[in-house]
Design brief:
13 helices; single chain; mainly alpha; 261 residues
């Protein structure tokens, strides 16, 4: 299939847009102290922040999958009234200012929160400013990305197979696990990757709900934020790590999308 010609004016506009996005990222590559890269990455604070980021983001991605896939299935197949309102609520964290998301989590799960006060009074469980709070903040902002990706796949899947399975006596759960899940597997994998990458880069809601305590709740984005005014060179190194991870995830997802075309 031949590619369509693009007018010179549109090419110039597209080139400007690409430069605007690429230039800041390339600037980090230029300014990173490559000669000291190994020493900086081996620092204890860097290793702790990276470990916490990997641990919490992987857990958040798994939780997002466990709860997000059934939610996507409900949104795609249920004909209940109020479904549109439920969808809006579920994807609101995608467009919500991150700090507002953190404040919302505090309002719900803080010691004086709607749910948190009972957890603290009855079970002596305090969620804010813990590593659990980091995971909760990451799930809050990342799960909507997975839900949207998987819901779209469920909507596009062949419902004839599902109807045939129902006719033959298969239970809704069996249809979900043996037909719907395999059919949506590429979207689920892509959704998990998106949720993980979004969790890894989460900052605003996490620092509001979990704080930034080195060795306990401080993730890579939090470390970058605090190091900008203290150790600019190290902040560039950590930023480079996040860029590499993000590019790797997007590249892997692009290959999967292109393969499905």
């Amino acid at each position: 299939m031949k590619s369509q010609r693009v007018s010179p004016a549109l090419q110039v506009v597209a080139f400007i847009a690409a430069i605007f996005v690429a230039l800041p990222l390339l600037s980090i590559f230029v300014r990173v102290p490559w000669s000291d890269l190994g020493d900086m990455l081996s620092q204890k604070s860097t290793r702790e922040a990276l470990l916490i980021s990997l641990q919490t983001s992987i857990i958040a991605a798994i939780i997002s999958c466990i709860f997000g896939v059934p939610l996507a299935w409900l949104l795609a197949r249920s004909e209940s009234r109020g479904l549109s309102a439920l969808r809006v609520v579920c994807i609101t964290p995608m467009v919500l200012p991150p700090v507002v998301g953190g404040l919302a989590l505090l309002t719900a799960f803080g010691r004086q929160g709607i749910v948190g006060q009972y957890l603290y009074d009855w079970f002596n469980i305090s969620l804010p400013f813990t590593r659990t709070a980091v995971v909760m903040a990451q799930v809050f902002v990342a799960m909507p990305f997975l839900v949207l990706a998987v819901e779209a796949a469920f909507r596009q899947s062949d419902r004839g197979l599902e109807d045939a399975a129902h006719t033959m006596g298969a239970s809704p759960s069996r249809v979900f696990f043996t037909i719907a899940i395999p059919a949506a597997r590429p979207a689920i994998i892509a959704g998990i990757a998106l949720a993980w990458a979004r969790s890894l880069g989460e900052f605003g809601a996490s620092i509001t709900f979990a704080g930034s305590f080195p060795g306990r709740t401080q993730t890579l984005p939090m470390a970058v934020y605090e190091l900008v005014s203290v150790d600019y060179r190290l902040s560039l190194v950590l930023s480079l790590v996040l860029i590499f991870i993000s590019v790797a995830v997007l590249a892997a997802m692009r290959d999967r999308w292109m393969a499905g075309r």
